[in-house]
Amino acid sequence: MSRLFIRFALLVLFFGGVLVAIAAQPDANPARAFFAAEDCPMPCWQGIRPGVTAREDAEAILEAHPWVDLSADVDVPGIPYSGTYDLWQWTEDFSFPMPINRQDIAFTDGVIGYIDRQRDDEIPRVGGMEMTTGLTLGDVWRLLGAPRSIASEGYIGSPGDRLHEIRFFVFGDTNITATAYQSCPISFASLLESPVSLRLSPNPVPSYRSEPILPTLYRLLRLRQVSVCGG
């Protein structure tokens, strides 16, 4: 009984620390400026909504946006599907200081796919989009609400610099996925400060079975600290 009580007390302390850590994020959350979606229901980035925004409008927004450099985009005849998406790099005006930058992982700063027309009278629209962000997991969590599901993707990286990948699904009621990259040692505090890439999907929010996200994350971090970091 005493062992169960101690374990319960430790879990209570952990969850209390989690809530304090999230609440202690600065009031000026950079995620608001990144999404700039006050008049655009989530999921939305800078006025572009997956499944809603017409391709013509999205490309006009990208072309005019000071953060976006489309010069490396590929649209080559004979390359399958090259015309169904746009790739970009962030410019020097991109105002977020923590982009993911690792030599052992290949990242494209941004990619947006388009839904092909099913009928001649149908307007091509935005499909999914994925971006490195310069935001931390804590920024996204605090702005959009707690994720409803998580998945552990194992680890990648060079020996001595193992990098764990954790994917968080469906923040609040939005179909947004955040992938955090956590170096050893793995802890919740450092995970909140990890930079994330974001995926915005046009699909309806699936009916996830409600998970106790914090206990699940606690168990995952303990397991990965041992199996990935060796301690």
What is this structure, in a nutshell?
The chain is built from 6 helices and 8 strands; from the N terminus they run H-H-H-E-E-E-E-H-E-E-E-H-E-H. By secondary structure, the chain is α+β, with helices and mostly antiparallel strands.
Architecture overview:
By secondary structure, the chain is an alpha+beta fold. The chain has one domain. It has helices at residues 2-23, 30-35, 55-64, 137-144, 188-192, 213-227, and strands spanning 68-69, 85-90, 110-115, 125-136, 147-156, 163-171, 176-183, 195-200. A hairpin with a 4-residue loop joins strand 6 (163-171) and strand 7 (176-183). The two termini are 27 Å apart.
Topology:
Layout: H1 2-23, H2 30-35, H3 55-64, E1 68-69, E2 85-90, E3 110-115, E4 125-136, H4 137-144, E5 147-156, E6 163-171, E7 176-183, H5 188-192, E8 195-200, H6 213-227
Antiparallel strand pairs: 1-2, 2-3, 3-4, 4-8, 5-6, 6-7, 7-8
Low-confidence stretches: 4-17, 19-24
**Helix/strand order, N-terminal first:** HHHEEEEHEEEHEH
Rg measurement, Å: 19 Å
Number of H/I helices: 6
Distance between the termini: 27 Å
List keywords for this structure.
231 residues, alpha+beta, 8 strands
